[in-house]
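hiii, so i know i said id send this last week but things got crazy w the move. better late than never?? heres the sequnce for the chain we talked about at the cafe, plus the structure i predicted for it. fair warning i was half asleep when i ran it
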Amino acid sequence: MATIIGLIRHGVTEWNNLSKAQGISDIPLNEEGVEQATALAKRLSSEESDVIFSSNLTRARQTAEIIQQCLGVPVFNDERIRKINCGLIEGTTEEERITRWGANWREQNLGMEDFKMVAKRGLTFLELIKEYVDKRILVISHGAWIGLSLQHYDSCCQYD
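okay and structure toks below
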C-alpha cells in the first residue's frame, strides 16, 4: 500500500462570488460552499480515509468538519496550510486595487506574503507524509497554497 494524499480546496464563500481577495481574512462558507462540502463528503464516503488536516481558517475548517461528520475520522488544524497573506489587497476586487494603487499594483509592496514563503510552509507541512506511511490523508486548504506547494514539491522532495 502507498500513502495517498487528497488536496482539497475549501468550498466557496461570499467573497469568492464577489471576486474579493480573501487571503487570511477569516471568511465563512456561504450556502453554496456548504452544499459543495456536503456533496464532496458524500462522494468521499465511498472511500477510506484515515485523517483530515485543515487550514485553521474558518472556510477550510467548515469544509473539513462537514467531511469529518461523514467519514468519522479525526481533523487536525494546521496554520502552515492556511492561505497566502494578501496584505493590503485583502477584501478588495481587481477593480478596487487598480483604483487605489494603479494598474501596476502587483509590482508594489502591499504587504503580501512572498510566494516562496508560502511554498516553504507547504513543503514543511508535506514532510508529515513520512509520519503517515500507508495512510489516506485529506488536506483541506486553499487554491493558492495547493498550487504553490505543488509547484515546488517535485523539485525538492524525494521520498523512497
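btw The longest strand covers residues 4-9. thought thatd interest u
miss u guys!!
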